[in-house]
Amino acid sequence: MPLVLIGKIGRPHGVRGELVMEGVSLTAEELLAVREFTWRSPRGLERPVTVSAARAAHDRLLVSFEGARDREQAATLTLGQLYAEASRLPDPGPHVAYTFQLVGLKVETEEGRSLGTVAEVVTTGGQPMYVVRGERELLVPAVPGILKQVDLDAGRVVVALPPGLEEL
Questions:
Q1: How far apart are CA 59 and CA 68, in angstroms?
Q2: Inter-residue contact 34 to 26 (CB < 8 Å)
Q3: pTM score, two decimals?
Q4: For the chain, which domains are there?
Q5: Closest alpha carbon to 40 in 5, 86, 74, 75
Q6: 3 state DSSP class of 113
Q7: Would you say the C-alpha torsion 137, 143, 148, 154 has a positive or negative sign?
Q8: How far is Cα 60 from Cα 8, in angstroms, rounded to an integer?
Q9: How many C-beta atoms lie closer than 10 Å to residue 53's C-beta?
Q10: pLDDT digits over 67-119, tens only?
């Protein structure tokens, strides 16, 4: 079963074993529902981990794992990445897709001109941006008016680029 990146584990928070999660594609409730994950170190070592608690804290998530009851134990997971089996993830809902589902999709204009593929999705200030790599790299805002269609089954994204975007 393929594993998908859920987020990156940052520094410990407090003394009770909580860790800051960065770039998380799930809510606290969804993390708790999935519960079983694979932790991967920066060197590629892997081990199974189980989420015991998760909560929102301002613009990030704080997560606790079974067996990490204090700051020192939690620190062993710092800088790791959290993965889950794609089949265990909740349905994101109608007209919504996970980031991992978007990466690799072909991007074209409404006229059918190919711009490349979605290499990654980044959030800048609150709106997601698709990093599209083709003949050149483009940052395409994923907002109504520009993002016209995402067709996961066809493997494509249709956009209406504003004037001048390709010249940036």
A1: 23
A2: yes
A3: 0.68
A4: 3-88 (2.40.30.60), 99-162 (2.30.30.240)
A5: 5
A6: coil
A7: positive
A8: 11
A9: 15
A10: 888 899 889 999 999 999 988 888 887 778 888 888 899 999 999 999 999 99
